[in-house]
Recover the amino acids of this structure.
DNA sequence: CTGCGCGCGATTTTT
DNA sequence: TCGCGCGCAG
């Protein structure tokens, strides 16, 4: 049975699928069948006789990789044995683990999560005696933010600070010092953070030519999804893996770049044809996801961008229903109205075909309460993660100690429940263990009975077969009394969580893999998409997914766009792309909620809001407006009124970020140019010495750095 | 040194 | 409202 590529794919998709040799860049608009293209390409490769083990698929989430592999297997009608698929981080983790000794980790290493990293920052700060008594000293999370941002963007901390945290400049020297101390601490304790995975893999591939060659031979076909969200080190890794004339396909959409805060570099996708000579560029422009009225609205969102990421998606899917903009009186009544909407939509769609999206995790709290009260099940993406829960970390700390006795953080956690033992004593014990000072250890274990019990338990664990499920079972009974003592209010719930952990452990035979997956994959509950529950998700976590009906809440100034993202013009641009990503998730039905007031934690009162600029910009004919009447119902405005405060508010709030209008004055230069990805275009402005605004037919107006264009 | 209580400040997004 | 960090008492 052969696959019918003729009828299943459009011309551009088919070209992407069948161009297997040499570098390929696929520019794929939202909903243009990007996943479909990757899936069919996988199938095509295997069908034409390629060994599935020679294929590497790098995606942004583990979920995306699994979904693509599974779909390819369905099309093929047989399993894809040996194909590597996953995130950059998980691929890096697996590769580094196999070659740990080559990068100076002779006894393996432990992967830390965010909380671990923050605690080390604090530890280093204390050891260096920095910021004692300074009330306004940066918090540990801020310290780590600066450090990790500097690494991801590969710029000195000073530059990062100049650009986005000018108020911290008095602490620059301190933060640099802490940054160095942090790096040293990790080395000394065989620890890695998320950034290390990428940088050490890059280093390993750079230095170890035999390994690099081996991997280049093994992965003859590489596909990278969401290429616009890769950062510099990820791009280098791809280059190393592909080699100079490798068969590598990058897929992405510049309009959906929403990870700049993590160092995502739009230049990667623009540079791709430069780095890989002879790159074939394929554009997917037809949208298969959303009905035309939704696309009309999302096109308007992009049209307002200063950089005009104007894709003008079109669709054959018709609908006579416009997207709705709903104005509830408050965020409380917003929650109630959203629940009403869900109940109505439920007549037409399954619950899991409906999603509520928001900018930040906490924004769904009122809705979660309302859903629970009425008995609608929901599944939340992008909140507190399962493995970050304190009791799970407690239990995992024992496992970590079995694996890596140098893991100071795990020691601190494991000894936390012992009365009379604090950080200082832990440090002493740790030091004694590693210098072989058994005398101190004997004294201290005599003093604390619980400590002796802990040491005995760990010794026993080390003697057992290192199978996650077996060790966990023992740990759970040891931990049981500690759990009850530590969390008297809700230990049954936590106990249930731990049992879930045991369940997951059963499918693992390898300890390091188990611990690594837990840190890299987030909530294992997320893996299974529950059948009968509404999806609540941050926009970031919703990326790449789609639903029949999408509701976006809290579309007000300071929430979406986030208040934190209003410092610089580029920040607002990223918020706009985020809004674009959110709206393009919807297939049939899109509802935008703009509460007139929101609860303010600081004052404990409701504050009036201003609608999000992204809502104010929308032309009236692209949506239908509904107000909450004071009786609590919904009121249709037959003649759409102009938005409140349109114009004045916008001018006040965004004058500085609106570089667009300012630059119109100096529109002087005209001419034509050529761009590797967008083709021929007309130059319409030069906002900065090395930046041009160019109108590309079919792509709209874009701002491009001079290096990427060729004058004609 | 540890454990507790008080007061202040903060609140994005993820691997 | 909550969590963090500091200061104080045992």
């Amino acid at each position: 049975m052969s696959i019918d590529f003729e009828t299943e794919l459009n011309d551009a998709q088919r070209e992407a699928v069948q161009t297997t040799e040499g570098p390929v860049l696929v520019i794929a608009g939202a909903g243009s069948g990007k996943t479909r293209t990757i899936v069919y390409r996988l199938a095509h490769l295997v069908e034409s006789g390629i060994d599935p083990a020679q294929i590497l698929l790098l995606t942004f989430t583990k979920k995306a990789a699994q979904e693509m592999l599974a779909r390819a297997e369905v099309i093929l009608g047989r399993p894809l044995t040996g194909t590597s698929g996953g995130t950059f981080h998980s691929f890096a983790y697996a590769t580094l683990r196999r070659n740990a000794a080559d990068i100076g980790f002779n006894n393996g290493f432990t992967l830390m999560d965010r909380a671990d990293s923050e605690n080390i920052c604090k530890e280093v700060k204390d050891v260096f005696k920095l910021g004692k008594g300074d009330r306004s000293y940066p918090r540990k999370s801020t310290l780590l933010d600066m450090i990790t941002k500097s690494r991801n963007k590969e710029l000195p901390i000073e530059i990062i600070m100049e650009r986005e945290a000018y108020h911290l400049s008095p602490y620059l020297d301190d933060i640099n010092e802490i940054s160095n101390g942090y790096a040293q601490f990790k080395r000394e304790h065989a620890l890695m953070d998320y950034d290390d995975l990428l940088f050490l893999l890059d280093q390993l591939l750079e230095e170890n030519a035999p390994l690099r060659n081996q991997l280049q031979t093994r992965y003859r076909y590489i596909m990278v999804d969401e290429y616009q969200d890769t950062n510099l080190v990820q791009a280098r890794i791809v280059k190393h893996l592909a080699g100079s004339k490798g068969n590598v396909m990058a897929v992405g959409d510049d309009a959906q770049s929403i990870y700049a805060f993590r160092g995502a570099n739009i230049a990667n996708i623009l540079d791709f044809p430069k780095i890989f000579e002879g790159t074939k560029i394929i554009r997917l422009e037809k949208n298969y996801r959303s009905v035309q009225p939704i696309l009309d609205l999302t096109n308007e969102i992009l049209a307002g961008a200063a950089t005009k990421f104007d894709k003008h998606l079109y669709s054959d899917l018709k609908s006579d229903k416009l997207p709705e903009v709903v104005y509830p009186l408050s965020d409380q009544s917003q929650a109630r109205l959203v629940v009403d909407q869900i109940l109505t939509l439920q007549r037409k769609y399954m619950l899991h075909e409906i999603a509520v999206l928001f900018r930040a995790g906490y924004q769904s709290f009122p809705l979660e309460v309302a859903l629970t009260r009425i008995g609608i099940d929901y599944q939340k993406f992008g909140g507190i993660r399962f493995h970050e829960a304190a009791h799970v970390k407690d239990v995992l700390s024992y496992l970590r100690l079995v694996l890596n006795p140098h893991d100071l953080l795990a020691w601190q956690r494991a000894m936390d429940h012992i009365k009379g033992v604090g950080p200082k004593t832990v440090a002493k014990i740790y030091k004694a263990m590693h210098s072989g000072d058994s005398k101190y250890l004997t004294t201290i274990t005599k003093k604390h009975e619980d400590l002796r019990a802990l040491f005995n338990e760990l010794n026993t664990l080390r003697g057992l077969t290192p199978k996650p499920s077996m060790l966990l079972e023992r740990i759970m009974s040891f931990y049981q009394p500690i759990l009850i003592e530590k969390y008297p209010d809700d230990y049954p719930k936590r106990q249930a969580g731990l049992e879930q952990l045991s369940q997951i452990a059963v499918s693992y035979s390898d300890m390091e893999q188990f611990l690594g997956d837990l840190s890299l994959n987030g909530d294992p509950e997320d893996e299974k998409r529950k059948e009968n529950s509404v999806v609540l998700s941050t926009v970031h976590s919703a990326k790449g997914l789609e639903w029949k009906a999408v509701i976006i809440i809290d579309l007000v100034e300071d929430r979406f766009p986030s208040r934190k993202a209003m410092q610089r013009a580029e920040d607002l641009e990223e918020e706009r792309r985020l809004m674009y990503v959110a709206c393009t998730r919807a297939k049939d039905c899109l509802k935008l909620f703009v509460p007139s007031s929101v609860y303010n934690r600081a004052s404990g009162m409701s504050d009036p809001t201003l609608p999000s600029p992204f809502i104010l910009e929308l032309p009236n004919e692209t949506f239908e407006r509904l107000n909450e009447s004071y009786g609590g119902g919904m009121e249709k405005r037959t003649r759409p009124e102009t938005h409140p405060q349109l114009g004045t508010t916008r001018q006040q709030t965004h004058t500085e970020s609106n570089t667009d209008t300012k630059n119109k004055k100096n529109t002087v230069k005209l001419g034509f140019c050529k761009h590797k990805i967008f083709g021929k275009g007309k130059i319409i402005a030069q906002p900065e010495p090395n930046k041009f605004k160019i109108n590309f037919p079919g792509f709209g107006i874009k701002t491009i750095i001079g290096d990427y264009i060729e004058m004609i």
